[in-house]
Amino acid sequence: MEDDHAVAALAALAHADRLRAFRLLVKAGPNGLPSGEIAERLSIMPTRMSFHLAGLDRSGLVHSWRDGRMVRYAVRFEAMRALLAFLAEDCCDGHPEICGVGASASCDEGCADGEKAAKRRQTVS
Length: 125
Description:
Blueprint: H1 3-13, H2 16-28, E1 33-34, H3 35-42, H4 46-59, E2 62-67, E3 70-75, H5 77-88, H6 114-124
Antiparallel strand pairs: 1-3, 2-3
Helix pairs in contact: 1-4, 2-4, 3-4
């Protein structure tokens, strides 16, 4: 990942509403959620949520698509993994396992599975 892409992704996450939406979408998995449901779950006005979701979409961390009359959003797990790898790539002089970042801590499309997520948290702890 290039520095400018990392900066854009981190900037997109640097707002409480966008961070909460991103975390909700991570839990939702690859099927994502409709924008209205995201707004409702986070108690954010739909127009404001649309603004924040568009920012996440522009950053490349999420993608959107039409599903009938709804617009759905989902995390781009590949982009999330790339950002995490970028942040840890120089950890401890090339030994990211010391930081707790490695294959066992990566998130795949099954990331919404609570059991897998719990195992990853135990591995990282």
